[in-house]
From TrEMBL:
Lineage: Bacteria, Bacillati, Actinomycetota, Actinomycetes, Streptosporangiales
Keyword Heme recorded: yes
Gene3D superfamilies: Heme oxygenase-like (1.20.910.10)
Protein name in UniProt: Biliverdin-producing heme oxygenase
PANTHER family attached to this UniProt entry: HEME OXYGENASE
Amino acid sequence: MSATAAAPPTRQSPSSFSERLKSATWGDHEAAEQHGFTQALIEGDLPLDGYTAMVAQHYFAYLALEEVGRALSGHPVTAPFLQPELERVPALEQDLAHLLGDGWQDLVRPSAPTRTYVARLHQMADHPAGFVAHHYTRYLGDVSGGQFISRAARRTYGLTDGAGVRFYDFRALGSLPKFRARYRESLDALELPEAEEHFLLREARLAYQLNTEVLADLGRVCTP
C-alpha cells in the first residue's frame, strides 16, 4: 500500500534470489504504486478521511502479520527477518489515536478485502516461506516508498512532530539503505527447496494483489 522509488530490475537474468523476487513482483509492485488511491495521496488530493481509513486498514493487516511473526520467531526461515524495530502496531495505534481521538478502537473496522488479506496472513503460520513473502512485500515497501507517503501526508494534512505518520518512522533501524542491503542478504541466504522458493515467489505476487484490492476498495470509498 505504498509507493516506492526502487529501480526496476535489469533485463539480464537475475542471479540472486532477492533479484529474482524483485523481478517476479515488479509488475505487481508498479500496479500498487500507480494505483489511483496512492496517486491521490501522493499528489495531495486525498481527503484526510481517506488517509485515516488507510491507516486503519494497515492496523488490521499489521496486527495479523506481527502476530504470525511472533508465532514463527523461532523458525530458521523467518527468524533472520524479524526484529523489534520493524514492528508497526504500536506506531499505528498512536497514529489512529491522533487522527480519531480517544475511543478510536470503536471507530475502525477491517474492510472486506482487508479481512481476506488478514485471513491469508494467518494461514502463513503454517508456511514460513510464505510469511517471508508477505513480510518482504509490506516492510520493504514501507521502509522505501513509505517515506514519500509520509512527506505527502505531513504536507497535505499539516501533521507535525510525527503525529499521524509514526507508522513511517523507521529511524530505530539506523541507515535505511544498509537495512535494505542486509534484508536482501538474508533473502539470498535462504536455503529453501525449489518448491518452497516457487511458493515464496507466488505468495509475494499474491501479497501485492491482496494489497492492491485493499487500495481499490479504499479508492471506491474515499477518493474525490
